[in-house]
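Pilot study result, target chain (317 residues):
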Amino acid sequence: MFKKLFGSLTGDNKQENQNYEAQTSNNNYEDDNNYQETEYDPETLHGTHYDVEDFDNEVAARAEAWIADERANGENLDEKDIQNIYFNYRRAVYTEWNNCDSDQMIRFEHANSLKYSGIQTSGFVKVDDNNPFLEPVHGVDLRTYTAMCLKISAGIDYLEVCKAMGFEPIIWEELNTIWPQRMGEDTSFTVTTLFGQYYAENVTVPQLENLKAEISEEGAANLERIRTDRYFYEELAGARQAAYEYGIDGAQWILDNFGINLADFQSVAMQWMTEQNQNWNSEDIMEFTNYQQEKQKEYAAKFAAEQGGNIADDVNF
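Predicted structure:
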């Protein structure tokens, strides 16, 4: 469950790059010649020179005018069409009113994703105290459940974790059914995103503090390095993806060769993803994406050689 869940969270597949390309292809919103410094509200990232209500009203006025014109011309717009119209006008108005580049616009969208799209973004989670999806299960809240997942995915037997928590293994089985089920049902992705942020924080609870996963001196050094060296993290992420493509358990390969367990690696992955969302910079992202892909190709060649080469190597056209 953990590998599949974190594959979707941290982009161990093609989807992350597809999303990135879609988000960073908004060149129509850049105007380097007219760019000027704007003061932004630190929470909403709206410009401080206007009221948010005025902004929303302007977007609605433009969007509704377009919608009315489309319908007058016989267009049958569904809910998705209307959402896209509002999305595009929100981008246009934000860019005009703040005279900003596309990176700032994307940071704004991340900060306001729940308000405008109904979906949470890692690094900008807003929590409603009355959210039924966050109600504790058997007295275990999401933070505690995450702490348990961290220990188990670090290699500590779940029976030890249950014993430390003071409940029977059947409780863990129910926790590990209900919390992932809520993640699937929560269309705002609050549970999933908050789980990821807790994971990035490497959260713990008092009952589990004495449970330590074994880690070698080399593993500890490599772990510290991927936390501080983005290029090293991208190299190992590329290597892990290449391993999976060659039928190798990538998480186990990282543990065997670098001494970093699954929990710690995924925690760092969430750390980098959250930081990227909060400080969106398309040039840096493209550089790291290209670097990871280069490393993935290098490790793919290594794994191919170890397995006697690719099948297609012997095919002549």
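One observation from the pilot: Confidence is low (pLDDT under 50) at residues 2-6, 13-33. A full batch analysis is planned for the follow-on phase.
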